Amino acid sequence: MLTYIARRILYSIPVLVVSSFICFTFVSLAGDPLGDLRANPRTTGGIITHLQHVYHLDRSIPVRYGYWLKDVFTHKFGVSLNTSQPIWPDITRAMGHTVQVILIAQLIALVLGVAVGIFSAIRQYSIFDYTFTTVSFLGYAMPTFWLALLLQILFVDIYLKWHVRIFYTSGLNTHGSATWSLDRLQHIALPVATLSIVSFALYSRFMRASMLDAINTDYVRTARAKGLPERVVIMRHVFRNALIPIVTVSALQFGFLLGGAVVTETIFTLDGMGYYFIQKLGQSDVYAIMGYLMVVAVSIVLFNLIADILYGFLDPRIRYD
Amino acid sequence: MTEPAPALVDGIPATASFDVTSAEGLELEARSQWSYARQRFLRHRLAMIGLFGLLVVFGAGAFAPWVAPYTFDQIDLLNVLHPPTMAAHHFFGTDEIGRDYLSRTIYGIRTSEQVGLAVAVIASLFGLFVGAVAGFYRGWIDNAIMRITDLVLTLPVLVTLLTVSALLAGSGGGGQWTITFILAGFFWTPIARVVRGVFLSLREKEYVEAARAVGAGDLRIMFRHMLPNTLGPVVVNGTLAVADAIITEAFLSFLGFGIKPPTPSIGSLVAGGQQFPQKWWLTVLPGLVLVVIVVCVNFVGDGLRDALDPQQRRVRA
């Protein structure tokens, strides 16, 4: 098992290096980080040349990549080209906010998705099943940005019509209120709702399918044949086996979402990873974007690995060596 | 002679006159895989609903200049930001400078469907070719191609898409074709993987050996004998890719990295509506069209999946 994990991690290193180099090239070519400065009439040519020299922007891209790689290990991703602020504190702050939102959203989606999936499968083709199949189908087809905007429109309208503030539609805290309070919950409720609806659609469909797979197996027929009560058959024999795929899917989803739900965070101006990325992309801030991309790539690789390990743990038939 | 009871051949009653020597009997036997598939597809109720929905929506987009009540940039200054109404024929309302929103949405569909269809076709053809070569020849070609697809799969797609389109199109967005090629560049990998998988198993089949024995060349074996057996998954994947591409294009345009403003696209319409949260129709209506398209494409995709599965001979009631 340990050798398997070690091998997977070792294998991911060249992938990360290659993909980081490709991304670095793309981002470097994509825009000019000093563009704003150039547009400013009060900037003299000397400043530009000086900055280009300090940030190695006058060197070729492979050389710049080398400098960046050095910064990654010696200065925790270095400093932002636009603000000269260190990148790492920004990323950890944004990551904290993203984790809050997706942790709550994933918990809600998992609990509801698994519960609905179980009942849909037990009562297949019932009204309950049809209702939730339709709901999850729609949830699956709905683009996230549209769903987020619908919620935003709804709660802006409620506020403007009746002057009741149920949920805030942007930001993380009202100015002056404590970080951890009802106020924070009111702020993150809508991003959480958006993400949970989208993930719920995915999980309930998955859970229903894997429950149905498990119900039709031979060992379930055996369990029923030996006279176990239906409750025990469902909970012990069907449910536990049906959980295996959902664990994998949710681990992958979690790793993917750690990169920030770019759209959701942008719409609700939530200071998380995705929002950070979109802002930095607009400024062509190469180092900041690369810092973000690396954190995302590592978290995806990590959660893929966790998914595989969990899979082997839950299903003893799978052996890694 | 007593007549035998009508037999069921693949769900279709073979008449009493079923006889190998009669023309009718032979006709029944000669039904191809494709005609079964067509029949299954045509009897798939949801797929037919989806197909109908797509014909309506895509038809409106394709014939936009004739269908839309106004052009997409025509300004009605007397009705700026007007909610949907029958009176002035602004069924979807008007935007902040008085352009008819239904017309803009229809022209947006036109852009989206062109992007979606082009991406699906380009990605399918390319993925088919690459996957076929990788699965057929194996060796270093296979390795190289699979590492490339690995790489594309490892990169967080949306993030990389944003970066690449910022590079190729500039931060203000790009032309329709730039976006199409960027999307196709990401969409071919799953198709290539599927085709490679099928080719890997097919190349060991006896009929491939037989074709080789009678002297068929590699290209003939690949495209004449093996390709038709991979078309099922490719068609299904390609259909679903249309919806994926349309959503992704909307997403890019929504964030301002997609198609440049004068051309309306559904994503940029929704994005434009975001500035006016109280004018609900600016966001809700184009988004609703998007949902309809995606639901319909998924219905058709599911129907095709059921119809093209060669294991399945059951004809849906």
How does this model look, in words?
- The complex is a heterodimer of chains A (321) and B (317).
- With 321 residues, chain A is mostly helical.
- Helices cover 76% and strands 0% of the residues of chain A.
- Chain A has helices at residues 2-30, 35-39, 45-54, 61-74, 87-122, 127-141, 144-162, 182-215, 218-225, 230-257, 262-267, 273-282, 286-314.
- In chain A, helix 5 (87-122) crosses helix 8, helix 5 (87-122) runs antiparallel to helix 10 (230-257) and helix 7 (144-162) crosses helix 8.
- Chain B has a two-stranded antiparallel sheet with strand order 1-2.
- By secondary structure, chain B is mainly alpha-helical.
- The radius of gyration of chain B is 25 Å and the shape is elongated.
- Classes of the chains: A mainly alpha (321), B mainly alpha (317).
- Chain A binds chain B through residues 15, 18-19, 22-23, 26-27, 29-31, 137-138, 140-143, 145-146, 149-150, 152-153, 156-157, 160, 169, 256, 259, 262-263, 266-267, 277-278, 281-282, 284, 289, 293, 296-297, 300-301, and chain B through 150-151, 154-156, 158-160, 162-164, 166-167, 170-171, 243, 247, 250-251, 254-255, 257, 270, 273-274, 277-278, 280, 283-284, 287, 290-291, 294-295, 298.
Mean pLDDT of chain B: 76
State the distance separating the first and last CA atoms of chain B: 34 Å
Question: How much is the average pLDDT of chain A?
Answer: 82
For the sheet with most strands of chain A, the description reads: none
Q: What's the total helix number of chain A?
A: 13
The Rg value of chain B, from CA coordinates, equals 25 Å
Low-pLDDT residue spans of chain A: none
Share of residues in strands of chain B = under 5%
- Unreliable parts of chain B: 313-317
Strand tally of chain B: 2
Structural class of chain B: mainly alpha
What share of residues of chain B is helical? 55-70%
Shape of chain B: elongated
**What's the total number of strands of chain A?**
0
Structural class of chain A, by secondary structure, is mainly alpha
Q: What Rg of chain A is obtained from the alpha carbons, in whole angstroms?
A: 24 Å
Question: Based on the structure, what is the oligomeric state of the protein chains?
Answer: heterodimer
